[in-house]
Amino acid sequence: MILSAQQQRNWDAQTIEVEPIRSIDLMERASKRWLEHARPYLNKNAITVFAGFGNNGGDALVIARLLATEGYEISVVLCFFGKTPSQDAQTNLERLSRVNVKLLELQSTSDLDALLINPNSLLIDGIFGTGLRSGLQGEFAQLVHKINASHSFVLSIDIPSGLLSDTLNTKGDEIVKARHTISFQAAKLSFLMPESEPCFGSWTVIDIGLHSGFLEEITIENHLLTLGQIKALIVPRHKFSHNGSYGHAMIASGVSATIGASILASRAAISSGAGLTTLLSDEKGINLSYPELMISRLDSIKSPDRVTFCIGPGLGTNEVARTKLVNVLKTATKPMVLDADALNLLSNEVELLKTLPKQSVLTPHPKELERLIGTTDSSFEQLEKAREFAIEHDVVLLVKRAHTVIIGNDGQVYFNSTGNNGLAKGGSGDVLSGIISALLAQGYKPVSSALIGVYVHGLAADLAVKQNAYSSLTPEKVISHLSSAFKQLGI
Q1: Which of 52, 148, 198, 343 has a CA between 20 and 30 Å from the CA of residue 306?
Q2: What is the crossing angle of helices 482-489 and 259-271, to 10°?
């Protein structure tokens, strides 16, 4: 799940009231759990903890005290600059005085000159949390600039200082460039946006024991996919089933020069459980070495209501391709998959959008999405316009990127948590289209097909790179690992 900064604060407050627990004790618990997950990054070298004046700083002070108690050499930099610490931060500052740490308080810009950062020291960033509503200014911006200039290894508490949780930072904002971020209870929306990548390195979300009942009382629009969520969508295959039980995926091909794209999609559909898979082609003399794959023409289909179409991979955008798209749209009676050139044709002829079967799955990459919804200034704005597009046109929109975004026709947004940069290669999207087509053919709902398809596609790629370099990952290798990926889902 992905919560806003305000929702996270409300969750903390409800836990304090309902558990009940004092805020200072909740801070202690959260900090202890943060430290448990930080263990792999710690060593006996010097550790410098930067603590702000708010509750994120309070967490940092707890962590500094716990580390000092364990015998680590700890330096604490109090980043107050004349601000009064929060009540819990002040309490933890008093508790810190009972252990052996080096303490430096920054009160003005001139104190920054005296601050020496050992580039070999581990830095723990607890200056600011999710309470920021705008970028850093003045002394705080200068401090973060100095931290980044040290090129030290930085661990951030909850969120890198200076990074806004729910909105885009202004270009040029100073933000701590963490190597790893350990975040409390829920992912932040900014973690899923490309613009934020330089700021948090890798990230982990940890459970700090907030009251579970809170989630039943709020509306969550943004979700981070987990294995458990995907497993819950899976329908078991029955003993007495047959090929007709699992639908018929029909992949429309392009011309012979680009037919490899539709063949990849077809092979992925076969490997993803479709009962029957047909390559829809007008080409003659196609030489296929895949005996499971059938070849047919659109005008030979006798029962279109039993067919799930996929069109776009290798289609082209000429008049012949347009005619093929129009004919497939006229024939289709169920939600279908549209990818690549099919989307480019739709963007050139918006009237065709009205002919799409309801809840069809569109799978654009960012440039193809831009052609559909128009240009945007950021990933945040693009997400909102894509959400509006999915609702307006009653489609499931799947935006391919590092954390692929799936937007349901109801406006719910899901970010994928599997996959790697080895998928940044031609043909990967064709494989994804084939997987989703197979799931639709088997009777999964469109949103479920997109969610399962994206997750298993990324999972297959993650399994494949255990044996292959990221740069050597190919669509063929992803297809070959689909079986293992589906097995992890229980089918």
Answers
A1: 343
A2: 40
Residue with tokens 């929109």: 397
**Contact at 8 Å (CB) between 425 and 435?**
no
Interacting residues of 71 by C-beta distance below 8 A, sequence separation 6+: none
Strand pairing partners for 466? none
Q: Distance (Å, rounded) from C-alpha 419 to C-alpha 404?
A: 9
Kindly state the tokens that stand for 434. 């084939």
Counting residues of the chain whose pLDDT is more than 90, the rounded percentage is 90
Confirm if 4 and 12 have CB atoms less than 8 A apart.
no
pLDDT in tens, 322-372: 999 999 999 999 999 999 999 999 999 989 999 999 999 999 999 999 999
Q: pTM of the prediction? A: 0.95
Measure the CA–CA gap between 253 and 313, rounded to whole angstroms.
Answer: 7
Are the C-beta atoms of 181 and 158 separated by less than 8 Å?
A: yes
Binned at pLDDT 50, 70 and 90, residue 290 comes out as confident
Q: Rounded to an integer, what distance in angstroms lies between the CA atom of residue 43 and that of residue 435? A: 45
Is residue 308 within 8 A of residue 428, CB to CB? The reply is: no
